[in-house]
């Protein structure tokens, strides 16, 4: 089994001082964001239900994806129509078939 060198002991290779500074800044920002996420996730006074956080930026991204992509990639085909028929109409009619 190979031994992995911990990141604190890892030998620094061809990085300039500017690149090292940028890496350290990114690590600090990532740690701050992680700490804020955990703080919000474990806040007992948070109003609302559920264990997920509401991120408005992610909601905007998902809304933009769903509304712009639905009609862009949809093509009505006989196979799609048959799948719609089988999934929706037959699935709802199945309980009534056995009752008659």
From TrEMBL:
Pfam families in the cross-refs: NDUF_B4
GO cellular component: mitochondrial inner membrane
Membrane association type: Single-pass membrane protein
Cellular localisation: Mitochondrion inner membrane
Alphabetical keyword list: Electron transport, Membrane, Mitochondrion, Mitochondrion inner membrane, Respiratory chain, Transmembrane, Transmembrane helix, Transport, Ubiquinone
Keyword Cell division in annotation: no
Main location: mitochondrion
Family, as annotated: Belongs to the complex I NDUFB4 subunit family.
Family annotation (PANTHER family): NADH DEHYDROGENASE [UBIQUINONE] 1 BETA SUBCOMPLEX SUBUNIT 4, NADH-UBIQUINONE OXIDOREDUCTASE B15 SUBUNIT
This protein's name: NADH dehydrogenase [ubiquinone] 1 beta subcomplex subunit 4
Organism: Rhipicephalus zambeziensis
């Amino acid at each position: 089994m190979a031994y992995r060198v911990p990141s604190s002991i890892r030998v620094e290779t061809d990085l300039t001082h500017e690149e090292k500074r940028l890496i350290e800044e990114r690590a600090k920002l990532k740690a701050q964001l992680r700490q804020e996420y955990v703080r919000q996730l474990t806040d007992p006074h948070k109003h609302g239900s559920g264990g997920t956080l509401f991120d408005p930026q992610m909601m905007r991204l998902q809304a933009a994806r769903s509304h712009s992509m639905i009609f862009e990639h949809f093509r009505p085909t006989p196979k799609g129509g048959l799948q719609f028929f089988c999934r929706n109409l037959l699935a709802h009619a199945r309980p009534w078939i056995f009752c008659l």
